[in-house]
Design brief:
Methylamine Dehydrogenase, Chain H, 48% strand, 7-stranded antiparallel beta sheet, 5-stranded antiparallel beta sheet, 40 strands
C-alpha cells in the first residue's frame, strides 16, 4: 500500500487526442462553460438579452451587425433570409429596412463601414443582389453605385484597403476581384470604372489565379489584402493599380469557410477541421496548441459557422450535432495563453464584437451580450472540468481514490472520481478561500480520472487548486 497525491496548482485549457499520459494533468481532456484565466477554475457568466426577440421564425435568421456611429449612437441590424431588420431605439421595436427578392443563405451577407464622400455609410453585400447602402437613421436603404459606374455587381465579400473598396463573390465571374476608384475630388468608392486622368486613381478588376475556382473570402491587413480561393491563398500587394501584385502563399492548408476567419490586430486567424491557423504576414502557420481540438473539430459542421474577436479571446461558433438547427458549440481561444475552452447549452446564429463587448444572435432570436448574467437566457449554466486518464507511475498497479481537496468559494459542487472498475462521487459547498474542502471518493481502477461539475447551474471559483489522494498497490496475480 502506498498513498500518492497529485496536485493541480493551476488550471489550463482543453487538450485532446494525446496518448495516455501525454496530456498534462492541469489540462482538461473535456470541459464546458468554465474559465481558467489566472489558473483559477470558475463557472463562466451567461448572456443577457438586450433587445426583444427578432420578428419571425428564428430558424430563418442569418446575420447580426452592430454599427457604432460617429455621433455616439449604435445601430443593430439583423438579417433574416428574406428581410433586413434594424432596431428602432425610439419605438423599442424591430423595423423592416429591406425585403430581399431571394432567400439568403447564412454565408452570403457582408457588412462594411465606409464613407462615401463625407457621409458615414454602411455597405451590405448579399451575393444575389447589388450592394445596398444605408446612411443610418433613414427609413430605408438605397442602391449602391450604378451600371454606368460598373459597380452594380452582386457581390458579397467587401473590404477597404488603402482607401479603396475591394469586392468579390460575383457569381457570373467567381474568380474576379473588383476595386473602386481612389476617393478624392469627384471620385468615390461607388465608381469602379476607369478614370482617364490616371490609371492609379481608376477602378478596375482582375481574375485571381490561373483557374476559375471562386474567391471565397477577402481580408484586409495593414499592408496587404488576403484573397482566399477554393484551394489557395493569395496576397495582393501594393497601394495603387500601377504597382498591384497578386502572389500565391506557398503553404499547405485546409481552406477555411470565411465566417470561421477572424482578424486579431493585424493577424488573421482561421479555424478548420485540422486546427487553428494564422497568417503571420508572409505565410500560414498553425498555432502552438492549434491541434489540441482536432478530435472534436474533425466531427463538427462549419457550414453555418460564425466568429469574432473580443479583447484577447477569439470566438468560433460551429455545429457539434448534425440535428442542431443552429451552431450549438462555442469554441473560445485565448490568444495570450494559447489555449481553448468550450461553451455549450445555447444556440448561436451569429457573433459580432463592438468596443470590447461580444454580441450574439441566439437561436431563439435574441440579441444578447455574452459574459453577463448568471444563465443562458434563463437556462442554468451546466459546467464541468475533466482531467485526462491518470495511470500514475505504472499501468500495472491498481489505484483507489481516497479524497479530493478543493479550495475556493461557491457551489454546491459534485466531484467524481472515475475508475475502470468502480466510480465514486461526493457533493458539497466549497468552504472559502482559506478553508480547504474535502470530498470523499471511492473509485477503483488501473487508471483514474477526476471530474468537477456544478449542481443545477451553481456558481463556483476554485482558487487554491485541487489535491487528489489515492492508494496505489500492486495487483495480486
Amino acid at each position: 500500500m502506498a498513498l500518492q497525491t497529485i496536485r493541480i496548482s493551476g488550471f489550463a485549457g482543453v487538450k485532446q487526442g494525446s496518448c495516455a499520459g501525454g496530456i498534462p494533468f492541469n489540462w482538461a481532456e473535456d470541459a464546458q462553460n468554465v474559465s481558467t484565466v489566472g489558473g483559477r477554475l470558475r463557472r463562466v457568466k451567461g448572456y443577457r438579452a438586450i433587445y426583444p426577440t427578432v420578428t419571425g421564425a428564428a430558424r430563418k435568421l442569418r446575420r447580426l451587425f452592430i454599427w457604432p456611429r460617429e455621433n455616439g449612437t449604435t445601430d443593430c441590424l439583423v438579417a433574416r433570409q428574406d428581410t433586413l431588420f434594424r432596431y428602432d431605439l425610439n419605438t423599442q421595436s424591430w423595423r423592416d429596412l429591406y425585403h430581399y427578392t431571394d432567400d439568403m443563405d447564412a454565408d452570403t451577407f457582408d457588412f462594411l463601414k465606409a464613407k462615401i464622400g463625407s457621409t458615414e455609410t454602411l455597405l451590405i453585400g448579399n451575393g444575389l443582389e447589388p450592394i445596398l447602402k444605408w446612411e443610418g437613421g433613414s427609413a430605408s436603404v438605397a442602391a449602391f453605385g450604378s451600371a454606368q459606374m460598373l459597380s452594380n455587381k452582386a457581390v458579397n465579400y467587401l473590404e477597404l484597403y488603402f482607401g479603396r473598396l475591394f469586392a468579390a463573390g460575383d457569381r457570373e465571374h467567381p474568380a474576379r476581384l473588383y476595386w473602386s476608384q481612389a476617393p478624392g475630388g469627384s471620385r468615390t468608392i461607388e465608381d469602379w470604372s476607369a478614370d482617364e486622368s490616371s490609371e492609379n486613381v481608376s477602378g478596375g478588376h482582375v481574375e485571381v489565379g490561373t483557374d476559375s475556382d471562386p474567391i471565397t473570402g477577402l481580408f484586409a491587413l495593414s499592408n496587404q489584402l488576403l484573397i482566399f480561393k477554393k484551394d489557395k491563398l493569395y496576397r495582393l500587394l501594393g497601394d495603387r493599380p500601377g504597382n498591384y501584385r497578386i502572389v500565391p502563399v506557398e503553404a499547405a492548408l485546409t481552406q477555411p469557410i470565411h465566417t470561421a476567419c477572424v482578424l486579431y490586430g493585424d493577424r488573421l486567424f482561421f479555424l478548420t477541421d485540422e486546427g487553428l491557423y494564422f497568417f503571420d504576414g508572409q505565410t500560414v502557420r498553425r498555432t502552438a496548441h492549434g491541434a489540441d481540438l482536432i478530435p472534436l473539430l474533425s466531427q463538427v459542421d462549419f457550414s453555418a459557422s460564425a466568429s469574432a474577436a473580443c479583447g484577447d479571446t477569439l470566438y468560433f461558433a460551429v455545429k457539434e450535432h448534425a440535428a442542431s438547427v443552429h451552431n450549438d458549440l462555442l469554441i473560445e481561444y485565448d490568444v495570450l495563453r494559447d489555449c481553448f475552452l468550450l461553451r455549450r447549452g445555447f444556440q448561436i446564429v451569429d457573433l459580432t464584437s463592438c468596443y470590447g463587448t461580444l454580441y450574439l444572435l441566439t437561436g431563439r432570436g435574441e440579441v444578447a451580450i455574452l459574459n453577463e448574467g448568471t444563465t443562458y437566457g434563463g437556462d442554468p449554466i451546466q459546467a464541468y472540468w475533466e482531467t485526462p486518464w491518470l495511470d500514475g507511475a505504472s499501468a500495472l498497479t491498481m489505484k483507489q481514490t481516497v479524497e479530493a481537496v478543493l479550495t475556493g468559494t461557491g457551489g454546491p459542487l459534485k466531484v467524481l472520481a472515475l475508475g475502470e472498475a468502480r466510480e465514486g462521487d461526493s457533493a458539497g459547498q466549497l468552504s472559502g478561500e482559506n478553508a480547504p474542502k474535502e470530498y470523499l471518493l471511492r473509485s477503483v481502477g488501473r487508471r483514474l480520472k477526476l471530474r468537477i461539475e456544478n449542481v443545477s447551474g451553481s456558481d463556483f471559483d476554485i482558487s487554491g487548486g485541487v489535491e487528489l489522494l489515492f492508494d496505489e498497490q500492486r495487483r495480486v496475480l
